[in-house]
Structures are given as C-alpha cells and as structure tokens.
Amino acid sequence: MINEAQIMEPIISDSPKEVKSAIVLDEVFAGYGSRNILSNISFKVKKGELWAIIGPSGAGKTTLFKVITGLLKPKHGTVEIDNQDLSKKGTRKLLRGKIGYIPQNLGLISSHDVKTNVLIGSLGRTPTLPSLFGMFSQQAHKETDEILEKLSISNLGSQPIKTLSGGEKRRIAIARAMLQKPEIIIADEFLSDLDVATASKVMNLMLDTQKQNDMTVVLIEHNLDSALMYADKILFLKHGKVKEIVEPQMAERKKLRGMFDD
Q1: Which of 56, 89, 137, 153 has the fewest Cβ atoms within 10 angstroms?
Q2: pLDDT value of position 130
Q3: DSSP result, 66-129
Q4: Segment holding 40, helix H or strand E
Q5: Can you give the pTM of this predicted structure?
Q6: Domain ranges of the chain
Q7: What is the CB-side half-sphere exposure of residue 179 using CA atoms within 13 A?
C-alpha cells in the first residue's frame, strides 16, 4: 500500500530557460593604425534575435561589421560568436558555414552567372570534391530556383553578374546568404539600392527564413524606419560609441531621430 508520503509531486520550475548568446562583444576598441573608430563597445545578441545597428554616416557601422565578422581584429576587448573567441587561431574556419555575410561590396563573382553565384552559398553543405568542380546537388539547384522565384529574379539565372543593376546584385547576394542556411546572418546595409516594394519583399523573406531556422540576424542599417519595423532590438551607434540599445516598441522615435542630427 502506497501512503501519501511516498507520492512525489513533479517539480515544475517557473523560471524560463536562459537563451544562449549568439554574439557577444565586451569592451571592444577597434580602428585603423593609431586611429580608434570604435570605443568601449559591449552588447549581447541572443540566439534567434534580429538586431538592427543604426547610426549616421561615419558612426563606425561598417567597422563594427568587420569586427563582428572577424575581418578586423579589435585593439582591445573580446568578440565571441557562438561561444567561440574570434581572436583564437582557427575560430573563423571553425565557424565557416555557421555565419552568412552580406558585405556592402556584396562579394559576387563577376565572371559567373547569377545562378552559380547563388549556388556558391551551398558550398558548406557540398562534399569537397564535387565543390571543386562546381558540381552542386539537385536539392541545392531546387532551393536556388525557389529563392530566385521569391525574390522575383528567376529570369536572371543565366545572366552574367556584370550586366546587372546595383539592386539586382544586392538581391543575388541576399539569395546566396539564404541558401547557405547559416545560424547567423550579418548584413551591412543590405536593403540599400532597393526600391520600397523590393526591400519589403526581401525583408519578409529574411524574416520567414529566420523564423523557420531560428536564425540570429544582425543588420547594419542607415534607415531608422526599417529598423523600427523589423528589429527585436535596435543599437544606436554614434561617433564609434553605443548611445542606446532599445526595443522598437519602447523606443522614443523623436529621440532616436534627433540623434541623427545632434
């Protein structure tokens, strides 16, 4: 016979499970030569969040992009991506395939056509030998066709990159990053050169991909309205320093707009 003392109630914890950080910067100073561009930058981006880093021209946004992606080593402080210290040898190679970059210059191969440029995004999922000969899987071809269709550029598949407009090239770079299916996407002003309708279409595709894959996204942005519309958090950068980190619904728009003009 079982008495009441022998019946154990399940222990239910009310505390939510802590979401791990995908990107962590701690007291980062960075620049070129003797000149500091970034001063004492610290923030944490949690896994699955979409952050917008905004600020006026010359604020240090592109330098911050280079620091986060490991293209520029900080003079002081640490940068961690997925709990890996970027300053340690071999870290960037270890993280390859986990991070998708969309730089301002896009990094497209002008001698290749559109579809091949997008397919390159699948190299991290392609066995080494086939990738050396540009042999991509049927699945990669299928996914590429679907992404090009969603971005309304399926008609450009065989076009050489050098014949495209700036906006078309930007969509190709975005498609390539999407095909990579990274855990983190970091994009430097990736909506520039796009008209309002296309920018909305591209951003909605980014949001769908983010939700489906629990992706972390950091957008380096100049457009405050885009940041307010899409981001979970907004980091305002000015003169190389973090001025504000806010949630859009809590943000004082007038105050943020004023920061551009101060």
Answers
A1: 89
A2: 55
A3: HHHTTSS--SEEEEEETTEETTSTTHHHHHBTTEEEE-TTTT--TTSBHHHHHHGGGGGGS-HH
A4: strand 35-46
A5: 0.78
A6: 18-98+222-262
A7: 33
Rounded distance between C-alpha atoms, residue 64 and residue 230, angstroms: 20
Could you give phi then psi for residue 243, rounded to 5 degrees?
-95, -40
Please state, in angstroms and rounded to a whole number, the distance separating the CA atoms of residues 159 and 23. Answer: 37
| Sheet bearing 233-238, strands edge to edge | 99-102, 184-188, 216-221, 50-54, 233-238, 241-246
* Rounded CA separation 204/206 (Å): 5
Closest CA to 62 of 190, 215, 251, 234: 190
CB neighbour list of residue 139: distance below 8 Å, 6 or more residues apart: none
Each residue's pLDDT tens digit, 179-216: 887 888 898 887 777 788 888 888 888 888 888 888 89
Strands 76-81 and 21-32: antiparallel
CATH of domain 18-98+222-262: 3.40.50.300
